[in-house]
Amino acid sequence: MKKPLIMGMGVTGRSISRYLSNQSIHHLVMDSCSSKNINLTSYVDKFLFSEDASILKEVSKVFVSPGVDSNNIFLNETIKRKIPISTDLDLYLSQTKSKPILITGTNGKTSVTRMTEFLLSKFYGEKKVALGGNIGEPVLDLLSKDIEYSVIEVSSFQLEYIQQIRSEISVFLNLGQDHLDRHKTLEEYRRIKERVFLNSNFLIFQDSTSPLQSNEQVSLNFLSEFKEVNEDIKSLLPKGWPEYETMNLKASISIYMALEMLKHNSVNFSKIDFIKENLEKIMRFYNDFSRSPHRFDVLGTINNALYIDDSKSTNVSSMINALDSARQIKDGKEVILILGGDAKGQDFQSINKSSLRGVKSAIIFGKDSSLICDSINSKCNCDVVENLEDAVNLSKNIAKKDDIILLSPACSSLDMYKNYKERGLHFRSLSGF
């Protein structure tokens, strides 16, 4: 009898295995790591260390974890043999009784997902809302909860494989260079991101992420709707928040507004009146919201230099946002920018000179340091160093009074660290915090 097989036994793969075991479904699992570190249930009939295609004759369906590359030979053989492919999101969306809210984009999706869960909890009650996906719990673990809304951060890696997507609300925040080592072109990356709009009751986007094809679904451009209250939002922004968070706030407020429109079947109410009537109350809520760690996290001042941890910056556009925010904190002061890591196929030559305005020195480390230096050394002073420790030490040596030392890598951390959190914590320790 053929059985389902799970490719990858990280957090997502293990949640799929738990789900299948709870359903008394025998299955196979495949991972390059030792099974000693994985809690296998009695319903796991076989653990495979290698991607041997001969096992496919025993397989009814393949569940793919997000980390599995689309060029994987085993996966391509699965497709060739027309064996169904599925994901944890497919399972979740087919089973959940909640209204799923799917959020994707190059930048800000973690912040918007957390802000949305926070805001909906304030209006609808904490027990009615849960966070899942790329952050929070694996989505399949949410099935045991009696919730009305599930707020799910969705990456391009997940959207690439999902077969049966549906949502109450779908959100495509923005588009910029990222993961081009996997998706090859920006057009392909966009096409995958746009899958979030499929079978959704309400689409939320901005000009650069609007669906390429017109459709009859209800939609909202979350930036244009807020033009009349831009200055109000900036004036109400909680203390210490960078200005770029206004975009994330607009997106999360738009999600709440869309839910109210769907709930009352009132797609024609005045959106701007709704925003004006609720804005002060919503912004007061956000005074109690804790922003994501390692996302433009102002650590403090040591020896007259201000340190900022933006380790969550893993692409060029997020680094540019961080530089803009740093200039707003101390306009006219110089920034020592620490960046580098795995560039993921991004084009650093596309960074213009004005984006690097005020950068005293770009200190570059990591796997693609030479590539990055060659791309930007005509636009600002650059120094290449071996690692983050050398970068922080050099920053301390060249920093003058009121300089900003900003870690905003614009790259993946996986060449040297387990994740961006470990990189950010190392930066804090090296800096003296």
Q: Could you explain how this protein is built, in words?
A:
The chain is α/β, with parallel strands linked by helices and 433 residues long. It folds into three domains: 84 residues, 3-Layer(aba) Sandwich (Rossmann fold), CATH 3.40.50; 199 residues, 3-Layer(aba) Sandwich (UDP-N-acetylmuramoyl-L-alanine:D-glutamate ligase), CATH 3.40.1190.10; 135 residues, Mur ligase, C-terminal domain (Protein-Tyrosine Phosphatase, Chain A, Alpha-Beta Complex). Helices cover 34% and strands 19% of the residues. It has a six-stranded parallel β-sheet, with helices on one face. The chain has a six-stranded mixed β-sheet with strand order 12-13-17-14-15-16, with helices on both faces. The relative contact order is 0.09. The mean pLDDT is 91.
